[in-house]
Amino acid sequence: MRVTLTHLEKKILDSIRSYYEQYDEMPTIRGIGKIVGISSPGTIGRYVNSLVNKGYLQREARIWRGLKLTVFDDGRSLPLIGRIAAGKPIEAISGESELNPNALLLGENRYALQVIGDSMIDAGIHDRDWVIIHSQDNADEGQIIVALIDNTETTLKYLYHFKGEFIELRPANTALSPMRYTSDRVLIQGVLVAQMRTY
């Protein structure tokens, strides 16, 4: 289903996009209000929150002014015409719906990373794939996580606990061995929620 915008939401989004293209940085809330002719920062803040919820903007604490435009900020959808078998052939059934990348990939506290290497290849995650991560500092056993080791290196691995006091970061590649660290050396920075690949 297409994520639609109200007239004022589109006007605010267009003003943000235009400002970013001109100055290579995001405008302030008051700056947005000045562009669109609304003096109330609270009103602009509510519209910005709506644009975040609809997937047109992302909140990112690590960047200037805490907002960024999403990859799919134009709101376009792809026709979803049915299913296709990757095993035994199935009857071709056409559909009349749409696939919106916003709904699949975007959301509060998410960010993207490009995978370098083949340590997760048996999980279907290949070198140069893009992964979508939900930013959080905890994870369940067996989830694929972004782990920060010794505050210097990050890696994408399965999370397991080993003998209580150790964290095991397990690759999905039979040629590689698990890595084990005391729990104080590993910080969980996020959990894998989606993946993208182009050909």
Describe the protein's architecture and organization.
With 199 residues, this protein is an alpha+beta fold. The chain contains four helices and eleven strands; from the N terminus they run H-H-H-E-E-E-E-H-E-E-E-E-E-E-E. It has helices spanning 7-23, 29-36, 41-53, 101-105; strands at 57-59, 67-69, 78-80, 97-99, 110-114, 130-134, 144-149, 153-162, 166-170, 179-182, 186-196. Helix 1 (7-23) crosses helix 2 (29-36). The longest helix has 17 residues, at 7-23.
Bin the strand percentage: 25-35%
| Radius of gyration of CA atoms, rounded to a whole number | 21 Å
| Helix count, DSSP H or I runs of 4 or more residues | 4
Poorly predicted parts: none
First-residue to last-residue Cα separation? 26 Å
Taking the sheet with the most strands, its summary is: 7 strands, antiparallel
Could you estimate the helical fraction of the residues in percent? 10-25%
Within the largest sheet, what's the order of strands?
5-6-11-7-8-9-10
Shape descriptor reads globular
Determine the mean pLDDT: 82
SS content category:
alpha+beta
Number of strands: 11
Sketch the topology as an H/E string, one letter per element. Answer: HHHEEEEHEEEEEEE
